[in-house]
Amino acid sequence: MELKEIQRLEGHTDRVWSLDWNPATGHAGIPLVFASCSGDKTVRIWEQNLSSGLWACKAVLEETHTRTVRSCAWSPSGKLLATASFDATTAIWENVGGDFECVSTLEGHENEVKSVAWNAAGTLLATCSRDKSVWIWEVLPGNEFECVSVLQGHSQDVKMVKWHPTEDILFSCSYDNNLKVWADEGDSDDWQCIQTLGEPNNGHTSTVWALSFNASGDKMVSCSDDLTLKVWETENTGMQSGGGFAPWRHRCTLTGYHDRTIFSVHWSREGIIASAAADDAIRFFVDDNESQVGGPLYKLLLKKEKGHDMDVNFVQWSPGEKPLLASASDDGTIKVWELIS
Amino acid sequence: MDVLGFAKAMDDLFDSSLNLEDAHYKEGYDEGYSHGLAAGREEARQVGLKVGFEVGEELGFYRGCVDIWSSAIQLDPTCFSPRAKTIIGQMEELIHNYPLMDPENVQVQEIMDSLRLKFKVVCSSLHIKLEYNGYPKSSKEANDIQF
């Protein structure tokens, strides 16, 4: 197993916090596209050249956010890009003939917005902030967005929000060491916290930075400042099928593989978990089919030391037939990798 | 005085010496207690004044906002989205149900928290930021680490 560096992308003039692959690209002749966001207050759009296979920066989204852009997320259709900033706003951008225009600004958070996420259908948006709250927004016609609910529950800075891949259930993780699960309880706008995964549930013992679902949505992996990855599972056959909400429970903890904070984790469709850590390394884990009884259910596949010159803030697998991995770092660069056996 | 009377008088004499420490303790305790009672009452009065003012200020603020918004809706029902109108109605009910004269009521925090969240949703819907000097914030600005 080898992690081959395909390209090193420079351009941002400050640390790159995050990136997001456009889900509507990478197939049927459409070149792969991803967006990256940075401490330099801009968002860059990168597109792959189909013949050379190399990426180039196609657009720079600037002069909108007045502070660091911390997170970005394409809508499921790939038509809109949401960018979350320390300036307490979330901007919505639309590609209008090659130019990206800011078509809406979501305001309301008291301070830095840390993460933004679209639900599977693209009808809801979630944001979270250092103000400890999670906001849910409804996507209305004409690029209008209306706040549906303000959720208070975390006792500290909320680092990330992520929707379940198939259900309209929202997950958040925080500096308060907890993962929280939120759902609309009644028939209209009654969002509540339906589960908290904390220390009593075999949860993390320090800041939880990120979470990611497997392809089928019955497992989730979270990463933390406590130097572990935790895998969670549910028997949920789907709330739509009348199964109701099945609680998540701890499946296993991966300890001893990281000696610095793990900032990001992403589960590929093929079942490979990639992690990004403060020791500049990228690691890969897979199911361990020969695991002993009581032993860890996942094994380390590969560790790429010095993946970057500084902290790796984010990793994400690409869409498309041949999954690539993109990583973003404090060193101001983005790298695109291919995992080869 | 006869012998018994003298012995008793001697006992009393020594009693008060032996119990001197106890007597002084009791005297001091009584004095401290009544001073403490008075000081505590005064301090609690100050706290009550402060908290009462803050609660009144926040509740009054929401009352004022809801009154204006409700008037606007009466003049033009389309000026607010259906969702905003529903939430304003919910705020009206919460304000009405707030146990103003019963600060020990267990619901006071819950109602106020709910009002704060609903207020944020309405402000967001109107694209405005309304607050007053001293409006409760969720986090202290200066000392938090930003990552």
UniProtKB/TrEMBL annotation, chain A:
- UniProt similarity note: Belongs to the WD repeat CIA1 family.
Q: What is the source species?
A: Psophocarpus tetragonolobus
Pfam short name (any one): WD40
Q: WD repeats at which positions?
A: 9-47, 62-94, 106-139, 151-182, 201-236, 305-341
Q: Give the protein's function.
A: Essential component of the cytosolic iron-sulfur (Fe/S) protein assembly machinery. Required for the maturation of extramitochondrial Fe/S proteins.
Protein name in the entry: Probable cytosolic iron-sulfur protein assembly protein CIAO1 homolog
Domain of life per record: Eukaryota
What biological process terms from GO does the record include? iron-sulfur cluster assembly
Q: Which UniProt keywords apply?
A: Repeat, WD repeat
SUPFAM superfamilies attached here? WD40 repeat-like
Instruction: Give a GO cellular-component term.
Output: cytosolic [4Fe-4S] assembly targeting complex
From TrEMBL, chain B:
Q: Where is the Essential protein Yae1 N-terminal domain?
A: 28-66
Name the Pfam families for this protein: Yae1_N
Record-stated family: Belongs to the LTO1 family.
Q: What is this protein called?
A: Essential protein Yae1 N-terminal domain-containing protein
Q: What is the species listed in this Swiss-Prot or TrEMBL entry?
A: Psophocarpus tetragonolobus
